[in-house]
Write a structure and sequence with these properties.
single chain, alpha+beta, Outer membrane lipoprotein wza fold like, wza like fold, 2 domains, five-stranded mixed beta sheet, three-stranded antiparallel beta sheet, 3 helices
Length: 206
């Protein structure tokens, strides 16, 4: 007996324990997220408030090594007092400290090495229909599905075919609408995030 190809394919119940607090019915024919007009991720190593870095001044073993960036983007350093470092790469901090040490005639030709220990300023925001909305730590390689899991998973009324992802760009910001149902079903790859991304999960309409 031949199957009628015109017959509609019934909607399937998707159970993804890592994401959903209860099973959700996903509408058939969801987008496969094949082409997303989303800027590529950019990994930055600049420091910000709350970040912790290690600094070594060669030959100065008595100096502290660990420093935390204050909420105003500054850090208190021996001999130099308050120095603004927010937005700088580790090597830029090292060059700045070396320059200031020589300008103040504290050291003649210092060698400074800076290494970031903790990036506490890197965050992603997840709002809407998730169990625990808020901001969460960003780590390299974090994906959209992993971020939703960090937020406790989706609520029972989450719309898995309408999730907004907003990313900052050099010219402003860009928002795309993603059907995460296709990711959960394995029809589309997961989407890598970057620090500063904002996610909003819409409510499902009944």
């Amino acid at each position: 007996m031949k199957l009628d190809r015109r017959a509609q394919v019934p909607c399937r119940r998707i159970a993804v324990q890592a994401l959903l607090t209860i099973p959700l019915l996903v509408a058939c024919g969801s987008s496969n997220n094949v082409r997303l007009n989303l800027p590529p991720t950019v990994e930055k190593s600049t420091v910000g408030p709350g970040d912790v870095f290690l600094m070594d001044v060669v030959g100065e073993k008595e100096l502290p090594r660990e420093y935390m960036v204050a909420s105003d983007g500054s850090v208190d350093l021996p001999y130099l007092h308050t120095v603004t470092v927010a937005g700088l790469e580790p090597q830029e901090i090292a060059r700045l400290v070396r320059k200031l040490l020589m300008e103040k005639q504290i050291l003649t030709d210092p060698s400074v090495v800076v290494q970031v220990k903790e990036y506490n300023s890197r965050r992603v925001m997840i709002l809407g229909q998730v169990a625990k909305p808020g901001t969460f730590p960003y780590t390299a390689g974090l994906t959209l599905i992993q971020a939703i899991s960090q937020a406790g998973g989706l609520t029972g009324i989450a719309n898995v075919d309408r999730v907004n992802l907003t990313r900052r760009t050099a010219s402003g910001s860009r928002t795309v609408v993603i059907a995460i149902s296709s990711i959960m079903e394995g029809r589309s790859p997961d989407i890598p995030l970057q620090s500063g991304d904002r996610i909003f999960v819409h409510e499902r309409l009944f």
